[in-house]
Amino acid sequence: MATDPSVRDGNGGTGLVAGALAGDRRALARAISRVERDDETGRSLLALFYPRSGRAHRVGITGPPGAGKSSVIAHLVAAFRAEDRRVGVICVDPTSPFSGGATLGDRVRLMEFHADPNVFVRSMASRGHHGGLAATTAAVAHVLDAVGFDPILIETLGVGQDETEVAGLAHSVVVLQVPGLGDSVQTLKAGVLEIADVLVVNKADRPEAERLFRDLAAMLSLAERPGTNEWSVRLLRSSATTGTGIDQLVAAIHAHRQWLEETGAWHDRQRHLAASELSTLLRRSIEERFRAGGPADGWSSVVDEIASRRRSPGEAIQGLLAGLDERMDRGRP
Ligand SMILES: Nc1nc2c(ncn2[C@@H]2O[C@H](COP(=O)(O)OP(=O)(O)OP(=O)(O)O)[C@@H](O)[C@H]2O)c(=O)[nH]1
Ligand SMILES: [Mg+2]
Question: What is the pLDDT of residues 209-237, one digit of tens each?
């Protein structure tokens, strides 16, 4: 893919790249759809965008269902727009029973930016991602980055595995917590504190918020790592209904980016993001190779062997890899 995208047009959608780079929103939206589909055209398009990406600050916003992630993001978008930044937003529309109906909520909340050419919001369904949501999210982020959106705010589901996955997707991670989810700190799942760069008690307008804030403060002081070069996790309060605390959140996000850049940690995070993307994609392509390479029932017969305890998963994988090596050897000239 060495051809300059600006001179390509038409076939296979590569003209979309030139259009998107020139600020054509419809071209951008269509290019993103192709990239999300992750077929051959999508991958070619992404390869054209990719060399132009790498500048945007990706900020992940995570937290339990209904914590106010989308509401906070709407405030953040307004704040970054006031700084004249072009803001990209990627949100995952949960299709889980926990938060059905959020789709409409997100749309309504972010509707006010619909006419602003410097805001681009992409909602993705959480189901049906060939190769995983994280891979699709990263791909869309590269496109938005390439066309000049910075920062890119990524709302991720705070449930299940996805909770810490955001650390492989964002330079800065904002974790929202809310009062009223039972015994406050108990609900803070393992791993969440480790990934948080900024910890926010949202719905601070609620009476129980202060107790949660104090508990989290105590927890953070216990976890405080020594060392001058370390980032110390910021703990803040916000209320997305009143807009209180949003300024401090914006300041914390800026401060974290500045810290990343001044300490060289930006470079480390870029490598970390690249490594997690590589790992996700590699896992997926190896699996695809196995599924495509053998007899049609090859995959399910291996699953049967494992399920019926005839082979351990480890042995089965060794067998599959040996088969792959053989095929690669045969394929050599
Ligand atoms: N009282 C109060 N309500 C809030 C606050 N922030 C959000 N909400 C309300 O909480 C509900 C959920 O807000 P969302 O912004 O959709 O939360 P979310 O985390 O994006 O939700 P999911 O994407 O479904 O996980 C909405 O009814 C909001 O109006 C807040 O600071 N205070
Ligand atoms: Mg939401």
Answer: 999 999 889 888 877 666 667 898 999 99
Ligand 1: residue of 70, 176, 206 to mutate (most ligand atoms within 8 A of CB) is 70
pLDDT tens digits, 273-295: 999 999 988 888 888 878 876 66
Lowest-pLDDT choice from 11-20, 56-65, 122-131, 272-281? 122-131
Is residue 105 in contact with ligand 1, taking CB distance under 6 Å? yes
Distances (CA, A) of 105 to 66, 158, 162: 10, 17, 21
**Alpha-carbon distance 131 to 113, whole Å?**
31
Spatial neighbors of 76 by CB under 8 A, at least 6 apart, are 59, 61, 87, 153, 246, 249, 250, 253
Helix (H, G, I), strand (E, B) or coil at 234: strand
Amino acid at 305: E
Question: 68 CB less than 6 Å from ligand 1?
Answer: yes
Burial zone of 4 (CB within 10 Å; 0-12 exposed, 13-18 middle, 19+ buried): exposed
Tell me, in angstroms, the distance from the centre of ligand 2 to residue 171's CA.
20
Q: Which numbered ligand comes closest to the C-alpha of 238?
A: 1
Phi first, then psi: what are they for 294, rounded to 5°? -95, -170
**Which atom of ligand 1 lies closest to the CA of 204?**
31
The predicted model scores a pTM of: 0.87
Rounded distance from Cα 153 to ligand 2 centre (Å): 12
